[in-house]
Structure formats: structure tokens, C-alpha cells
Amino acid sequence: MGFYVAQLLTGLANASSLFLIACGLSIIFGVTRIVNFAHGSFYMVGAYLAYSIVALFPGSILGFWGGVIAAALIVGLLGLIVEMTILRRIYHAPELFQLVATFGVVLIIQDMTQAVWGAEDKLGPRAPGLDSALRIMGEPIPEYDLALILIGPAVLAGIWLVFHRTRWGVLVRAATQDREMVGALGVNQAWLFSAAFVLGAALAGLGGAIQIPREAVSLQMDLSVIGDAFVVVVIGGMGSVSGAFVAAVLISVLNAFAVLVFPQISIVLPFVVMAVVLIVRPYGLFGKEGSGHGAPTEPEQPLRLLSSRATLVLMALVFALAASPVMVSDFASILLVDVMVATLFAVSLHFMMGLGGMVSFGHAAYFGVGAYGAAMAVSYLGLSMIPAMIVGPLAAAAAALFFGWFCVRLSGVYLAMLTLAAAQILWGVTFQSQEFTGGDDGILGIWPASWASSDQAYFYVAFALCIGGIWFLRRVAHSPFGYGLRGIRDSDVRAEAIGMDVKFHQWMGFALAGTMAGVAGVVFVFSKGSVFPDVLGIAQSVDGLIMVLLGGIHALAGPILGAGVFVLIEDWVSRLDYWRFIFGMIILGVVLLAPDGVAGGVDRLLRALGLRREGQA
Amino acid sequence: MNVLEVRGLTKRFGGLVAVDDVSFDLGKGEFLALIGPNGAGKTTCFNMVNGYLRPDRGEVRLNGQDLIGVRPRKIVRMGVGRTFQITRTFLSMTVIENIQMALISHHRRMFDMLSRATRLYRDEAEALLRLVSMEDQAGRACSELAYGDLKRLELAVALAPDPTLLLMDEPTAGMAPSERVALMELTAKIVADRGVSVLFTEHDMDVVFAHAHRILVLNRGGLIAEGTGEEIRGNPLVQEVYLGGGTVFGESEADHA
User: Is B84 within a domain?
Assistant: First the structure.
């Protein structure tokens, strides 16, 4: 009995820190409608700052708690800088821009943190005065855990008071329900947004700061916490603080007990809970359907076929690509294979996101399942390259059909979150199934058949699959099926009124996009010879989003340009020190300066040169 | 035979009876208006006929087939076209592509992945555009159209699958007065030429009295009158509902006196 009580208390202590991060994220989303990837970075910086400040006053109780609070306040200030310099400029941009911009902030903060504190993990001090353990029902419980259990509800009560007893709090709640209405009533939205962002950032900093006696401070804290924080926010309902508290307790306590039965479940459990909650309650436990007032979006222009001159240019480029292995070095042709793989991946993501209006934060899942499917077919079934290349996309199709069925029941940011959950579940399963997937060690020695083993020969295999796949997806985009997806994106009510089966159509679109991502994964695995769990990870999914965004979401050619530019920049930048910082700056530059992406920029250039008529897209 | 038969249609929302025991018929080629003050239950009635709401009680039959419990998209396939109070079109497509989409869906080609959508059913779509006099706007992006043109486009889209029944929810809402008359004249002409039956709701009485063959009046969920324009105009109950409770007030004054 005592053992179970101890587990319960550990769960509740974990819930406090998770709640602090998640409620900040929830407040920011509620008011600004921004899904803030950089929230994990605020948490990490809070932990590092607290570590440094507390170290100045060793053994002092006042020094410890003062340091924790000072760290939270400094992170709040950091939040203000990020909000005023970056986010304030893109509140009216599409959600995807905001998401990718915050990911740029993640990269920049990561490198800046490394520059200040170094790459080694830091071990924080124990909290003075709370450094021993109490015996409760015979089990030792750290005193600090008990303090944490009190901090969570105390912060919840504080936020409740602010939101219900102050004018500012009432405005925040009003903006969460309908920010356009709040603007129409004459409230200065810019300051309201800044203040909400600062509060949210400070809460994340506090969440990080109070963790220092419990876990090592490391550079991996940011992305490892953000997944769980998203889950908590979504389960509680976007914008609901008390929902975030209930969800944090639910997840942490469930986790504390689930690990007793099935020790490996902790990576997957939050995402499974989230998937179940979203299917039963599509807006989370305490969430309501938001007001329809999002950022105003410019209507997209109709699709047009390429002019005959543009077709000739395109054909010439494809022929040049086909002839390239003869002309360039082996190294360059390996790089070109990377470009083609990335391009097919980006085009498949754009197919479901740009045409279908279904934003995916977890498209890497199907890329990864394709890669693992092929790799496992080789290493366990002993298949040769060609059959394995068929098994991979079939596995991706099966995964996309399974998870897609759930995802298409939701829309908007909730759909995106469920795709993220699906990807994290697949990642967790891959990571932990050591005996089948090799776990963290991956699967090695997946090489092409002997006839395709030279770099040149494999280039043509990749060329056939990737260029073929891209051509097929473009063809589908112009077909009734692709038009149907766009129609549903434009108006699902009209789509139903002309007799379309909306959900089934979206489900098939999701599955097709997943299958083609699987094809990209298969080409990838045979070109690298190995596969590791990070091909299914958040970073890989975000890479895809960045490619689509770099290229511009409104043009069919966008993802092609975006992927090319992305791989070339990555190849160049990743050899430099502090490449994350440079890459983050490039992302922010594109988002702030060229919001229609590279394709938009090229389009403007062509128009300026008179190569393209007005009105063509 | 009647195209649409509605019998004893009833819907409750909590304690409120939104539609109470409504019955009516709609004949072939008939232009039938459903009017009533705000909150009378017109839209609820509509949504039960087109399958978006399931009635608590009652029957709806289209050409003798039962419609209760049938999904909206299946009802569309059975020959019911509809237009919306606020236009719903595919804004990222051109005018003619919007009609082609309706034709593609009608011919069950939606899962075709290899044909070019813009080349399918082009002639039929052009014919429909001529019907609503929009042939010169075929290639324009839908997002650039004036509101009145969007309404006409929606009419053409609704007619694409050659429906036997057209449901129009406030077809002239949000339009300028001169455009209202033009749209309803066009609709009346199409009804006469093609033998389509139309059920529409409307707030503009000029439109209703000028074109409807027959009028149903709803108030507080119940059908209070039915007849031609002349009959409805002369009906004292309708006058009372529309012109306010002065008489009711007067009566109660008299009772107290």
C-alpha cells in the first residue's frame, strides 16, 4: 500500500513541473493562437539560469528560491524580446509560418545556450532545507517532491485569481474566446499579446528552474519536454489553464502506475492518452471550439497548367538532372539523391497540407515506416532490394491508413496535434522494440542490389522512384481526386452538398501522402545503408514543414524549390560551428522577409523579367 | 404524384418545440415558399428535409422514397440540389471548375487520379453557365466574383446533377434589391423550363409574392396558413403575426375592461 502511495506522490510531483510548462503554452495559444515550439527552449533556459544563479548562493534557502524566481523573471524578459522582435510581425501570417518561426527560435536558443553554458550536462544542487526524505507509510519520499506537489496547485490558484479578479485577466479570457471581438472593443491587442506571452514564458522558465534539484540540466531538455507539453495542452483543451492542470495530473499519475506494469510505456503513454481523448472529445477535456476568427487568409488562385515555355524549361532541368552523374563528382550525385528524397518527402507533405488543408506535424512517421519496412524486409525476410522497395511503401500505406482514419475526424490544430501523437507513438515503439528494430542502434547494412551498388547506378534508381513519385503527385493534384481535396479544404459544406464523402476522401488523401512519403523513405534507407529512430522524429517532421514553407505553400512548385534549397543550405551550414544558430536565422529571415517563400520570390523575379504573364500561379 | 411529401414533422431542442407537426406537399414544377418571422422554425424544417437534422417524429418522402435517416450526401444523389444562405463555393477554383466539380461528383469520377479535372464535362458545364448567363465569366477565379454572381453560380452548381427538387435557403439574402428580383426571375424561368420543383425560405415579401406559386407560413414551429399570394395577403392570422401583437394587446385590454 505504502509503495502505491509513494508512486502516486511521485506522479503528482512530476505533474507540477509539467503543469507549469503546459499552462504557459496554453495561455499563449489561447490568446495569440500561436503553437509555440520555443516553449521548451524557455523551459531549458529557465533551468540553466536557475543553475547559475543558485550556484552564487550555496546552501542558502533564500538564495535557492530567489534564484528560481529570478530565473523565471529573466525568461519572461526573453519571451518579451522574442515576442516583440519576431512574433509581433507574423500574427497575421498563416499558422504554419508562426510554427516554423518558433522552431527557428528553438534552433537559435539551442546554440546560444551551448555557447554560454557548454555542451556538458549540469547537475544542480539539492534544495537547501528540503534535501532529505520523509517516511510516509514506510516509503521514503523526498521532501522536495512534497514541495513540488504544493507548488502546482498554488500556481493554479494564483493564475485563477489573476484571470478572475483582475481586468487584465478578464481580457485574456475574453481574447481566448474571441480575440477579434476584444479588438473591436478597443483593447490594445499588441500589449495584451505581449503580456500573455511574457506570462507564458515566465511560467515555462519557472517549470525549468524548479526541476534543477531533480534532473540534470542538458541541451536536450527543450525538445524532450515540448512533446509532453503539447499533449497536456491538447488533452486539457487549448487555452484552458485548469484543463492543463487536470491533464498534467492525469498523465503523470497514469504514467507513475503504468510503468509498474509495463516499464517501457512511458514514451508512448501520453500520446496514446491524447489520441483517445481527442477521439472522444475533439476539443480536449475542457476546450471549446474556438471562434472562427483566425488570421485572415488570402484566397488561393486557381491551379493552372504550365505554359509551354515553362514546360520546356522544366523538361530541360529534368534532363540535366538525369545526365548529371556523368558530369559531376560522385559526392555531388550522392547529394543530389538526398535532394530528390527530400523533394519527394516535401511534395507528399505539401499534397496533404497545401492541397488537402490537413497540416501534419508528424509526416516523418510515414517516411520512417517506409524506411524501416524496407530495412526489416531485408534483414528479417531476406528480401532483395526490389521486393523490399515494395514492402516499405506498403507498410507506410498501412500506417497512414490506420492513423489517418483517426486524424481526419479532427481539423485544424487538433488534427496537426494528432498527427504528432501518431508519429511519437511510432517513434516510441521503434525506439523500444530493441529485438525487432535494433532500438537506438538502428538497422545497419541495408545496401542496394549489386547491379545498383555504384553511386551512379543508385542515382538512377532514386531518380526513377523520386521523380516518378513527384510526377505522379502533380498529376493527381490536377485530377478530380486532387481537386476534390482542394474543394474540401475550401468548403467542406459545399463538398458534401455536391455529394462527396468528405471524410473518406480526406482519409484516402492522407493515405496517399503517407504512401509517397514511404517511397521517399525507401530510397533514403538504401542510399544511407542504415536507418535509426530519428527518421521518425519531430525534427524530421519539422524539416518537411520548413521545406514546404521555404518553397511557399500556395504553389505546386513550392515544395520542389524548398526541398532543394533546404538540402543545399543544410549541407553547407551543417559543416560550420553554430550551424543551428545560422539555420534558425535563415528560417526567421525567410518568414519575416519573404512570406510567400522561394517560389513566390522566383515568381516575382520572373514577372519582373517579363517571362511570366500576370495572373499565372 | 407529389415530389415531396412531409407529414407530421416534429423537432424538439430541449424544452423548445422548434418544429411542431408540420405537413405539406410539393408538386412537380411547383415553386413553394416557406415564410415566417425569425425563429419560426424555417431553417430547422429545411435541415430535416435535406438530412442534416433527424426529426423526432414525422415522415419526409421524395418521389415516394423515405428520406428519414438518409445521409445528406445520399439525399443529394437522390436528386436534391441545394443553395445556402451564405454562399458556399470552392474559392480557389474558377467559375467553370466549380460546376465541373459538381458534375464529376454526380458522375462518380471523384476518385479518378489520372484524368485532368479541368477537361471533364466541360461542355455540360458551359451549358449550365449559359443557363445562368455567366458564360463570359467561366475562367475567372471564384474569389473575385461579386456576391450576386456567386449566388447565380451556386444555382448553376445546384442544377448540375439535374435534380428533381431544389432547396434554397434564403436565396436572396445579402443581395441588392434589383439583383434579388433578377435572381428570382431567373430561378422562376428555370423552374418553368426544366420542371424542377423548388422549396425556398425568404424574408423579402416582394420576392415571395411575385414568384411563389404557393406559400406556407410558419409561426413558433407550427404551420398557420397555406395558400396562394392573394389568400395569404388576406389571412388575418398572418397579418397579426407579421404586423405585430397590437390586436392581441387590444383584446387583452378589452378583457380587463
Answer: no
